[in-house]
Records
---
Amino acid sequence: MGRLKKGNGQHIEKHYRSLMERCQVRLDDMDRALPAAVEDFSTVLEERGVSRRSFLKWSSVMTAALMLPPMFEPMVAKAAEQFNRLPVVWLHFAECTGCSEALLRTSYPNIDDILLDTISLEYHETLMVAAGHQAEANLEKALADFPGKFICVIEGAVPKAMDGKFLTLGPHGKTGLELAKHVTSKAAATICIGSCSSFGNIPAAAPNPTDCVGIGKALGISTVNITGCPPNPTNFVGTVLHYLLFGGLPALDALGRPIWAYGKRIHDCCERRPHYDAAEFVEEWDDAGAKKGWCLYKMGCKGPYTFGNCGHVRFNDGMSWPVMAGHGCIGCTEPAFWDTMKPLEQPISKDTIGGGEKTVDTIGTALAGIAVAGIAVHAVGTALVHKNKDDK
Ligand code: FSX
Ligand code: SF4
Ligand code: F3S
């Protein structure tokens, strides 16, 4: 048994060593291939008052978040230094722009935010100055300058009804469907940011008269889905770092979400969980239990049915997250949560209360079946850069 364990340890170490070598080659290749940075990242950090020590601390936290052992920390740091050289084309369809707001605006920027601030956006409809013909020319230039080398990020669902005419953009009135197909077919990979582009979400909520859907479904392509309404910036940054490190996207669950970020239930990393286990529930907003931080299950918390790392990474520089702020999770990382998780402030089924633990944990175990062990997360990484189904 002891020999078996030792053998396994050696096998894992060998695996990580070869992964590190691959990663080193990849980072050197990227160094040669990526366009020069507009601003040197170390200078940016210095200007924003971030010490080298804080940056290295962040690299170590991000390495752990990506389920990599500490030996990868220098490489994660190097990938972060390349982050602002990766060309990104960012499209907006049917949505509220809350995802861009969550990612790009913050009062106390941490390193994730600085990375997002300096991202090389070749095209972003709500941030760029250009409009009309000039905007369209910028987009075409980016596609021509970086064919197969840029990341396409999409925010928002696409309406399919009336041949997509519920959403048209630009001086030639292209539909979201046409634009999405045009841009994604030339991208190295497509990342759907937020639950709208991932699954349709609120624009697709019943009765969905515009027949909104997520990008993967609309175009029949594989996308990496950074879900949440809005999603956590760390999950986007980590996914792009993974791409820079391994030349591929991280292993995904059955819904296209990176397992490193969405492999666990909200319920399993919740600070109120001991109260759930002790059957200590908030029964009314602002009752004694609410003041003591008891479990919000009876107030409709959907943490038991929802996958994400909100309780670990939190929002606003790790300041808080919905459950910590006193409201239950509404399941915003899950498909069609607006329709399937309602009523949002009541449990899905009253029958589960009291006898809830068994029901809730049975659901959790079944859902967790889609997650895999950490080592496999990186082993399959390179296979996941998508191609449109009709591409060769
Ligand atoms: Fe959707 Fe993002 Fe929710 Fe809003 O753009 S994920 S409605 S936070 O803004 O797409
Ligand atoms: Fe936390 Fe909600 Fe689970 Fe209660 S039900 S432990 S509040 S995730
Ligand atoms: Fe969304 Fe629930 Fe996290 S509502 S932000 S998945 S805690």
---
Amino acid sequence: MSAPGYPAFGTNGIRSTLDGITPDFIVKICASFATWSSAKQVLVARDTRTTGELVEGAVASGLLWGGAQPVLLGVLPTPAVEYLSKKRGVPSIIITSSHNPPEWVALKFNDEKGVALTKERGREIENIYESRAWKTSTWDRIPKIIRDELAINEYKQVLKKECKNALKEIKVIIDCGNGTAGKIAPYVFKELGAKVITLNAQEDGFFPGRNSEPTEQNVGDLIGAVKTMKADLGIAYDGDGDRLALVDDKGNYVLGDKVFAIAVDIILNEMEGDVVTTVATSNIIRDIAAKHGRKVKYVKVGAPYIAEEMEKGGYATGGEEVGGIIWPNAHPGKDGILSSIKITEYLASTGKKLSEIVDALPKYENVKIKIPFGNERFGLIRRMQEEFKEREDAITIDGVRIDFEDGWCIARASGTENYVRVFGEAKTKERAEQLVNFMKDEIEKYKLG
Ligand code: MG
């Protein structure tokens, strides 16, 4: 794998810092996107980062050059843009680096159905960029920029429509992490009847309140607030609002895969169809699906692969183990805000405590290790995939996952770091450790080719 000399498409768009994603590059890649999609209009939104307006200007310029009309939506959560793309049948570019540190810059691209572009579809745009084959508007045919900062209200309506019951009697603390969720989540919860207390709800690209990834270490203030104010739950979003973490009524942090599992249980009560997730997801999801008589379809790691698979139809939901869940009635992207509303609605309508719901989930232990490898890690994984691809207990679409009666393990080559990552999950720590050791032995066998 040789680097192309510019920030290429990864698992979800293009990501770097301003030194890598320069305004010059942004103009050209966006002109290439306009050429690729041949859409008349492209929606453009940004998160709360300090680089937002600079990047937005370059994106708009590139779209104009490539002959598409930019519709500037201002600061919006990622799921709002995916909803608007689908509703209007217009592709979109989201300027957001999600949960990354404040200096990061990234572009996410969606097609006219609101489905995020995979690395493979991104490659088609890179081909246009590399061969400098983007369209160039002549002086007399340059489209006009449209500004539509009220579009957020359309998304707000869909959030309220998806919530069938009032959230009254629920006391919720919402930590927006100075990201885009602050623009909408607290207001919608309030309008739905909840008692709302906010943390870090003001937009601030320096993220002074906390880092934008809602990990347990980062949401200490939220945990403390839930305990002292005796709230029913705490909600923390990532920087662009497409995923969430929860804090239960006892002040315990609820990991992303458990949040995903709770959401799947709620959705499968309401909808027909199977569940899509990545090969790296806990068996909790498989167990919940089985409880409802449904199956799990595994795809490669990366939210766009989940959205792409769901577009084929027959699925009730999809999501990632980090707490990103798709509610296909609304739109095809992960939606942290809608997830938080649906889970809170479930608490309000059943009278159950979040801690009880978490306690009732299947329990698993896991072990993670990383083994140092240079670029030969890609060849190693390919050889293993060749060997395992015919086996019924193996999934080889992304790394090598092997399922056992009582657990599973996976080996994947890191895309950016010199490691092969091995993960094992089982009912006990010892068994998870054994599964990781089994995979380590397999790696040893295929090391030399
Ligand atoms: Mg995100």
